[in-house]
Amino acid sequence: MNHMHDGTKGRCSGCGILLQTEQPELPGYTPIKALDRDPVICQRCFRIKNYSEASSVTVDQDEFLALLSKIGDKDALVIHIVDLFDFEGSMISALQRFVGNNPVLLAVNKTDLLPKVTNWNKVRNWVQMQAKAQGLKTVDIVLCSAKQNQGFDRLLESVNEHRGDRDVYVVGATNVGKSTLINRLIRDYSDLDQELTTSRYPGTTLDMVHIPLDDGASIIDTPGIVYPWRYSEIVSRKDLSAIMPDKPLKPAVYQLNSGQTLFFGGLARFDFIEGERQSFTCYINNAIKIHRTKLERADELYKDHAGELLSPPSREDMEDLPEWTRHDFRIKKGSRNDVFISGLGWIKVNGQEGALVAVHAPRGVRVMIRPSLI
To answer: In what residue span(s) does the CP-type G domain sit (predicted)?
Structure first.
């Protein structure tokens, strides 16, 4: 692979891929006449920039891990950006193995989605505990919101504190807000025209993009990794906006007796199988309707109304999703837990009496129990 720096005709200044003029259907294609443009961008970036077309070229896990393993040999600061709404789904759990002794700064984006009353100190401690449980050692954890432009000054301070004269690698899954962060770093650290950096769409950075800094080091933007266990990766584009919240979550509290079920549109279902009457708080995008029913009627309701009353997804999009699979959990007495569905949200178990619950969700979507976030 030829690793020329941007500015030569070798790489696209939008996504960093090696340019080629032969095969229009393959990534990196640019028409010969477009090579005279300055900066040179591939046809895909050109379309995204000019027609807001989102193209979904991303890297799979193996390619991504190969890219990551190069970081271990370098002297660098690694910024790992995760999505607070889908924390366990967007966390790169093997990161520590690959980055070696390089310091990791954890940037936790989308804090704007948590309800206003949130105790941020507690959230930070929760993140620290979860990161540690995943084996990640962090030099700092910064809570931020790309959307509200909050926490970035704090993040830049932390970068200054831990970077020295090293390169900065930015890593993260798709849809976590990486481009916004990169653009902010560029604005603060280099005199480049920031149009060059990345397109405005998820999953559009194809290879490492080197952005030179004023002191001779670089910011290296890595491609977004696609994690198949996140709900956001398996729904159709039009349902993506239904599941990904863009404003603070309004918690929905349900008092349930055992033998009751909640449907989250046609996306997942939560069964309260046994336990004392207790309350459950749902943290999901408020665009998704929640239907309560009796557990004994749940299968029938789904069979008759999936894709209509129980939507999104619509009937036709349902066919593209994997079949549902069931996850059973016993919540211990006296514990404070969330039942987490990656990319869709979580259900907080408020009672301390213990409970037996089950979640039905498409096969492959990560469903788990975790200590309560809020």
So the answer is: 65-228
Instruction: Say which DSSP state 61 is in.
Output: H
Q: For residue 5, with 0-12 CB atoms within 10 Å meaning exposed, 13-18 middle and 19 or more buried, which class applies?
A: exposed
User: Which among 213, 221, 230 has a CA at the least distance from the CA of 81?
Assistant: 221
Measure the CA angle with vertex 176, ends 50 and 242; round to 5°. 80
Count of residues making up the chain: 374
What is this structure's pTM? 0.80
Q: Are the C-beta atoms of residues 44 and 30 closer than 8 Å to each other?
A: no
d(CA 144, CA 155): 8
Question: Both 209 and 328 in a single domain?
Answer: no
**d(C-alpha 103, C-alpha 134), whole Å:** 16
- H or E segment at 129? helix 120-133
Least confident of 5-19, 63-77, 125-139, 292-306: 5-19
Take residue 108 and report the two structure tokens written for it.
């936790």
The separation between the first and the last C-alpha atoms of the chain, rounded to the nearest angstrom, is 47
pLDDT tens sequence across 222-232:
877 778 888 88
Q: Which domain holds residue 62?
A: 56-227
| Position 45 in a domain | yes
- Cα–Cα distance for residue pair 140/83, rounded to 1 Å: 16
How far, rounded to the nearest angstrom, does the alpha carbon of residue 331 sit from its chain's CA centroid?
27
Q: Could you tell me if 105 and 137 lie in one domain?
A: yes
Q: What is the pLDDT of residues 243-263, one digit of tens each?
A: 889 899 999 999 999 999 999
Domain count, the chain: 3
The two structure tokens encoding residue 63:
């390619």
- Same structural domain for residues 147 and 170? yes
Whether residues 64 and 120 share a domain: the answer is yes
| Same domain? 109 vs 209 | yes
- What pairing do the DSSP bridges indicate for beta strands 324-331 and 355-362? antiparallel
Evaluated on CA atoms 227, 228, 230, 236, the torsion sign reads positive
Residue 353 shares a structural domain with residue 248: yes
- DSSP, collapsed to helix, strand or coil, labels residue 367 as strand
Tell me whether residue 232 is in a domain.
no
Q: Is residue 46 over pLDDT 80?
A: no
- pLDDT at site 48: 60
Q: Is the pLDDT of residue 6 over 70?
A: no
Name the residue with higher pLDDT: 192 or 128: 128
